[in-house]
Amino acid sequence: MRVWRNLRARNSRRRLLVLWPMAGLLTLLLVAILFDRDVSLALQSWPGYERAFFAFITDFGTSGWILYPTLLGMLVGQGGTYLPLTYSWRWAARSLAGTSFYIFASVGISGLVTVVLKRLIGRGRPLYLDDYGVLYFDPLQILDWRLHSFPSGHATTAMAFSVVLFTILNGRYRIAVFGTGLAIGLSRIVVGDHYLSDVIGGTVVGTLTAIVIRDFFATRNWSMRFKDGQIRFRIYTGFLPLLRKIRRGHIPVALK
Predict the structure, then answer these.
(1) What is the rounded distance in angstroms from the CA atom of residue 116 to the CA atom of residue 254?
(2) What b/e string do you get for 189-204 counting C-beta neighbours within 10 Å, with b at 16 or more?
């Protein structure tokens, strides 16, 4: 609620919470009408080697390869804090748990939002363009994968994880980070699973959800904090005592 009040207070004059969503929905509708069909057909007709590249990177938009390791990191890190560890190992365990929790929350919650929206909206996928058309909607379709086109879950995960990496790296390599996220979103059009408007919708959901979660963590000094008007990620500094010992030639007992 504190994050929500701060957001509303900062943007009340611009009416961000009313005008921007309406403008965004109108933009998505125009994109769907004017571009979705032509863009899908054009990208799916790219040469085979280009489509093969995007078919390879598209699986990086799945959330499992992010959620499972970070869940394990949360359990191992949190469990390590209850063991009789030395100072350096205890801080490393806390850092592992905190970093894993932040990544898991950002990717998991953004994905959950998209899963709910998919089923509420019920848009037909481009694979069934000839049967349904571009603007076919059948809301409240819980299990029918053919009607789970909007928004793109892969684009959501890719952009949420891009925001996470941008935060963890404290703004470094931003072009590479967000460029990769956008390429994964684009791949969903190339492989024929989503329209352009689906990818845009997933990109917006993933980005905004990850930003809200990041600000939620920062306002509570969980893994990060505000400094000079910017958010600085700092939890990985907990690994430094252990790394310094290893650099000095000390071999931890757990590694012997």
Answers:
(1) 44
(2) bbbbbbbbbbbbbbbb
Q: What is the pTM of this model?
A: 0.87
Is residue 247 a contact partner of residue 234, using CB atoms and an 8 Å limit? no
Q: How far apart are CA 126 and CA 254, in angstroms?
A: 53
Q: Is the dihedral of CA 21, 26, 27, 28 positive or negative?
A: positive
**What are 94's two structure tokens?**
């806390």
pLDDT category at 32 given cuts 50, 70, 90 is very high
Instruction: Report residue 226 as tokens.
Output: 């505000």
Q: Write down the residue that tokens 């007709």 correspond to.
A: 45
Under 8 Å CB-to-CB from 43, ≥6 apart: which residues? 186, 189, 190
Residue whose pair of structure tokens reads 């963890």 in the numeric block: 168
Tokens representing residue 4 in the block: 């929500």
Residue 123's beta-bridge partner residues? 137
| Listed range (73-77, 128-132, 152-156, 234-238) with the worst mean pLDDT | 234-238
What percent of the chain is helix, strand and coil (3-state, nearest 5)?
75, 5, 25
Q: Is 241 exposed, middle or buried (0-12, 13-18, 19+ CB in 10 A)?
A: middle
What backbone torsions phi and psi does residue 232 show, to the nearest 5 degrees?
Answer: -115, 120
